Amino acid sequence: MSANPALDRFREHLPPKPYCTDDLTAGLQIRSLKLALQRAYIQHNGPGMVWVMVFDIDRACIDPTDFFPVWLDAGLPEPNMAVMNRRTQRGHLIYLLEAGVCRTELAHLKPLRYLASIERGYTVALSADPGYAGLICKNPFHDRWQVWEIHGNSYTLAELACHVDLTAKAASLPSAASESFGLGRTAPCSRKAVNGPTRPSGSIGHPMACPGGQKRS
Question: InterPro entries under this entry (predicted)?
Fold first, then answer.
């Protein structure tokens, strides 16, 4: 068994020629996967399938005062990885999906809307950046980032959905969800040029407890 199952699964579904960059202000380039893996930012989902959900956390992913991670505060299951800025501890939470969700012009809209509703619910629960487009993420293979690999168990949509109220106004989506939010905004997808609550006592929804995760400095 691999010592880094989450990293292995993340890499397994990367597009063969992803967008990537070392400098967001310089724009994105399309490179071979071998070269893209050497860049600080990388496209995590291909144009036709969603295998990864990423949430952009604009505050420390781990509370510096008591070391509680933001997902426990939000009542959400553990992400597979947290990829963080070494200085600020801000970063991306990465959830791996057990089955990909199609988002081409042939995709069924119902599972795509389901996925987009889950994404919206998690964004609200985590107070994640709602403007994050979801095209690229911090590359967990790059030494610029501190990577906390927590567990390698991928999630079904149902397992993710049971932690948020999809009927709540914040998570509900209009019928034109494919145009409105997050993952849904890219479906159907085409490649374009791109320039205080009581804290839970343990892990929720997945058997892998946070202290057992692998933290790569």
Answer: Plasmid_replicase_bac (IPR004322)
pLDDT of residue 169: 66
Q: Where in the sequence is the domain holding 134, given as residue range(s)?
A: 5-181
Residue-level pLDDT at 105: 80
Write down the pTM of the prediction.
0.81
Neighbours of 140 (CB within 10 A): 26
State residue 183's pLDDT score.
Answer: 53
Using alpha carbons, select from 104, 82, 80, 103 the residue that is nearest to residue 91.
82
With the C-alpha atoms ordered 7, 8, 14, 20, is the resulting torsion angle positive or negative? Answer: positive
Q: Which residues contact 192 (CB under 8 A, 6 or more apart)?
A: none
For residue 49, tell me if it sits in a domain.
yes
> Rounded CA gap, 69 and 55, in Å?
14
Contact 14, 89 (CB under 8 A): no
Within 10 angstroms of residue 76's Cβ, the number of other Cβ atoms is 23
pLDDT tens digits, 18-67: 999 999 999 999 999 999 999 999 999 999 999 999 999 999 998 777 78
Structure tokens at 105: 């012009």
